[in-house]
UniProtKB/TrEMBL annotation:
PROSITE patterns: 4FE4S_FER_1 (PS00198), 4FE4S_FER_2 (PS51379). Keywords: Iron, Iron-sulfur, Metal-binding. It comes from the Bacteria. The keyword Ion transport does not apply. Coiled coil: none annotated. GO terms for molecular function: iron-sulfur cluster binding; metal ion binding. Residues 4-33, 39-69 form the 4Fe-4S ferredoxin-type domain. This is Dissimilatory sulfite reductase (Desulfoviridin), alpha/beta subunit. The keyword Mitochondrion does not apply.
Amino acid sequence: MPKGRIEVLEEKCKSCGLCVDACPNKVLKISDRINSKGYRPAEQYKDGCVACKMCAMMCPDVAIEVYRIES
């Protein structure tokens, strides 16, 4: 199974949570940190990302980049 990781562009994220709901492996959550606009950005908080890109496709703010990790 492929491995991946995401990078959230924190200043673009508005904490809508659509990415969290879309993730089939439930590796995302809304952070406790607050960005400069007052939102709590999403973050990958555990391993298990398979680089399916569902989170990025659901993001209305184009705030998620997905990377596949080659072993």
